[in-house]
Design a protein that fits this description.
Elements: E1 3-8, H1 18-22, E2 34-40, H2 43-48, E3 61-66, H3 71-81, E4 86-90, E5 94-95, H4 100-114, E6 120-122, E7 124-126, E8 132-138, E9 143-146, E10 152-155, E11 162-166, H5 183-193, E12 198-201, E13 206-207, H6 217-229, E14 236-237, E15 242-243, H7 248-263, H8 276-285
Parallel strand pairs: 2-3, 2-4, 6-12, 8-13
Antiparallel strand pairs: 1-3, 4-11, 5-13, 6-11, 7-8, 8-9, 10-12, 14-15
Length: about 300
Amino acid sequence: MTESNLYLKGAAEAGASQKSREAGCATDRGPLAWTLVSAVSDEQVLNGCLLASPTFRSASETILQKGYTSAAVAYNDALSRAKTDLVVFVHQDVYLPEGWIAAVQNAIRILSETDPDWGALGVWGPRPSGGCAGYVYDGGWRRILGNTFEGGVEVESLDEVVLILRKSTGLCFDPQIPGFHMYGADICMEARHRHRKCYAISAFCLHNTNQYRMLPWQFWRAYLAMRRKWKDKLPITTTCTEITKWCWPMLHWNLLRAINLTTGRDKPPTKRVSDPSSLYRELVQSGKVVAALNPRG
């Protein structure tokens, strides 16, 4: 059985012009109107991370999706009910620090001038020319990925940790991609099919995740579904692997991990921290992270 919790905050989106909505509501007249969406499987993680985020309180509405069998189905349902054009899909184990949405708004403002037809935004993704772009803390590896920059950097796909869409583009998630993996790469391919580019932006957040010893079978099911769907567009680079005709990256990754586990070369996986807000303060105070922009009133 599925369950949706909806939290409304005011009517910030009322009266906004269609032009402003299509630009992602990136105006200088007031706060950004946006809907926060998350697929929830663990209430404790949700309460300790996403709902503990200062930015959570600035959302115009929050939709929490529970009991769904795939991200695509959960997110499409939320898209259909969202009251704002801008919809932000975030993992339940993400911490969005103070000023995060202001950084998003700043990036959208710049993109509205350079590429107002953008398809999807995120905080981490592989560039077509190689390497990755974005700005995020990876809790699995206990490291900071990327750095600060203005606007957006074009990417081939986006990590699902944060995905930002506009309802006005008509983009939606494909329920044929099973489970909770690869839908970020798929939505970027769908955007490209509609001649829209996707971008990583510099809006720092913490992905307070546990580390995988082995990627679950559900991940590879989604990999194979992407391989079938986009067989004429291969290879497709994601943040975790590359989708190819012969699945060599899939076979190589699992073989290497199996050898490391068998021989004892694999280190114990890291666990998420109990208080991501304290971790964020430590990163800022140490100078390892540039604090997010102050929200504009």
